[in-house]
Amino acid sequence: MSDQSVTLAVVIIYFIIVIGVGYYFYHRSTNLSDYILGGRSLNPYVTALSAQASDMSGWLLMGLPGSIYVAGMGQVWIGIGLAIGSYLAWLFIAKRLRIYSEKAKNSLTLSEYFENRFHDDTGA
Question: How do the domains of the chain map onto residue ranges?
Fold first, then answer.
């Protein structure tokens, strides 16, 4: 087999696996809450990894290295500050936000939470 055939086979197998996983979890979720929040049944480690991967991926892969390259090693403190800030946010905010988001009409997003919590129907 040529290198091109092996690469094509790996890509096709990867697509089949991704489509299979998507199909499985599509039939496992029954409503929007299941889709967005995993039915509120994910353990804290999975939730933290998912949130940080969504939040920091572009910044940590492109922004921070670019900032260090342009401005020097002093920019490493940005990464340290981000790590400490993220940890403190999870420590002090995450559990309360989860509890209050359920009380605020089972809010799914932050904007929906603020709207329900403060009874603001302006849509701003």
Answer: 1-30, 41-117
